[in-house]
Write a structure and sequence with these properties.
seven-stranded mixed β-sheet; 3 domains; 16 helices; binds flavin-adenine dinucleotide; disordered N terminus; FAD/NAD(P)-binding domain; globular; alpha/beta; Polyamine Oxidase, Chain A, domain 2
Length: 469
């Protein structure tokens, strides 16, 4: 598989030549820190833009993200890196997320006991707190599924009140058919989990009101959207002698024995000293040579076990500026198919500037076999508008332009036992020298930006250690 067309690694310069596959958060973080360390970095991005799932879009003279994208980390190294990229060009989002329930009521984050009691009802609230207390005294013998994990943590009643319907819409299957392993990412991602827990603890007197953690209520956000961070990283790489090649889909890695020596795109082969790939794991493994039988078996099983949810995002230009106070609303109600609505007007002024309209992003999550995935843009726009009207989020405010974005295979679904299939694939990849597979796709990991930054940093450290610079 080695290439005759490729240039020899390091032949053109004394700096190590490193390829990064994918210009999303994972890949760009690795490329950015390597460029800072003096490597000759070439990023190959299959699409026309940088930022991956965390990119921002210019839309109708405003800026929007792919749904709500908040960056949150407790890791000082990642925080410092974020600050070094964004500089002073950020503002604080005073986040007002909310939950729209089956009964049409909106609960505000962070959950306040008085608000919950008023909306959920006194008797039901007392039952929730009692069941939570009982559950803590009598833990489940085994926590295997996401449902077990939620019931163990909150009691069954709270699971049914706050978590079941939303997560079933999100994953497209009952929580009892999701591996408990998702809890790590879900609990980090969801302010709801912490806030419910705090409200319950207050209910049973474990914490006092003033001790309630203000979960991601305020967070820093770039003036020009989440994607601004990645656009800046790409600019830095280019300004420092590296390349960020768009529409450069990597078709295969080139190897000699167990050592990766380069990669191939439609334009030909290039040789590298090290490759960091954030491309999806299964196709990557499938094209590598020397698969032992357990890897071949895992590749076959992966089709049914390592599955993904896809998303259809419908952007609506709404001619009004005070639609509703929340920055985003999770749609826990079964009355609509949308799972979440983001109101970019309630993020930072840099996103909308002087414009007098609001952009809403109405999210639908589905499998690619579902009708939602194949609906036309017009059908999706009509559905989104109808659903928002039905839950009272639009009132009589007129809707102008619409824009639809489809995100194929963007959320890994942790089916029970998925690790049995995933592990041999990861072990096989990890056995190749001069290769790191990272990121949401590269590790089949349902995670957030900061986790991908960490993987990018670790891959860059690994490349530097392997190449000695
Ligand atoms: C709707 C939504 C809301 C989210 N909200 C949040 C949030 O609030 N906070 C948060 O931290 N995270 C959030 N996330 C998650 C976050 O976007 C992802 O964790 C992150 O973008 C993953 O980074 P990545 O680099 O691993 O993958 P990606 O962002 O998917 O980037 C991978 C890149 O690699 C490219 N690529 C793939 N294969 C190839 C190939 N063969 N050749 C060349 N290029 C290739 C792709 O085109 C893509 O640009 C959200 C995600 C979605 C979809």
């Amino acid at each position: 598989m080695s290439s005759s067309a490729s240039s020899a690694p390091s032949a053109r310069s004394s700096h190590p030549r490193i390829a990064v596959v994918g210009a999303g958060p994972a890949g760009l973080t690795a490329a950015y820190v390597l460029a800072r360390a003096g490597a000759q970095v070439e990023v190959h991005e299959g699409s026309r833009v940088v930022g991956g799932l965390a990119r921002s879009l210019d839309l109708w003279n405003q800026r929007v993200d792919l749904g709500p994208h908040r960056f949150y980390t407790q890791d000082a190294r990642i925080n410092a890196l974020w600050e070094s990229v964004v500089g002073q060009d950020w503002a604080t989002v005073e986040s007002h997320p909310g939950v729209l329930r089956n009964d049409g009521q909106v609960l505000r984050y962070p959950l306040q006991v008085a608000d919950v009691v008023r909306k959920v009802g006194f008797t039901e609230s007392v039952r929730c707190v009692l069941e939570y207390g009982m559950q803590q005294l009598r833990p489940l013998p085994e926590v295997r599924t996401f449902e077990d994990w939620l019931v163990q943590r909150f009691g069954r009643r709270v699971f049914e009140q706050f978590f079941r319907d939303y997560n079933e819409k999100f994953f497209g299957r009952p929580c009892s058919q999701i591996d408990a392993g998702v809890s790590g990412s879900a609990s980090k991602d969801s302010s709801l989990i912490d806030t419910v827990l705090n409200a319950l603890r207050m209910g049973v007197g474990i914490t006092r009101a003033r001790a309630v953690k203000q979960v991601t209520e305020k967070f820093p956000f770039p003036h020009r959207g989440t994607g601004e961070v990645y656009e800046r990283m790409a600019r830095f790489i280019r300004d420092n002698g590296g390349e960020v090649l768009l529409e450069s889909r990597v078709e295969a890695l080139e190897v000699e024995g167990r050592k990766v020596t380069g990669l191939r795109t439609a334009k030909g082969s290039r040789a590298y000293d090290f490759v960091i790939s954030s491309a999806p794991l299964v196709p990557l493994v499938a094209q590598l040579p020397g698969q032992p039988p357990e890897v071949q078996r895992a590749l076959v099983e992966a089709r049914d076990v390592l599955t993904f949810r896809s998303a259809v995002l419908v952007y609506l230009e709404v001619h009004g500026t005070n639609l509703f106070p929340e920055s985003w609303l999770e749609m826990h109600t079964r009355a609509v198919r949308t799972c979440r609505v983001t109101n970019f007007r309630n993020w930072v002024p840099g996103l909308y500037g002087q414009e007098r309209s609001s952009i809403l992003c109405v999210e639908y999550w589905c499998a690619q076999e579902e009708d939602l995935w194949t609906h036309s843009d017009e059908a999706m726009a009509a559905l989104a508008q109808r659903e928002l009207e039905s839950v009272g989020l639009l009132g009589s405010t007129p809707v102008g332009r619409v824009h639809v974005v489809r995100l194929p295979r963007c959320f890994p679904v942790y089916q029970p036992g998925y690790q049995r299939v995933l592990q041999p694939l990861q072990t096989h990849l990890d056995g190749f020298e001069r290769l790191s597979s990272i990121g949401r796709g590269g590790r089949f990991s349902y995670n957030s930006q900061d986790a991908n930054w960490r993987m990018g940093l670790e891959a860059a450290d690994g490349a530097r250690a392997a190449l000695g610079f």
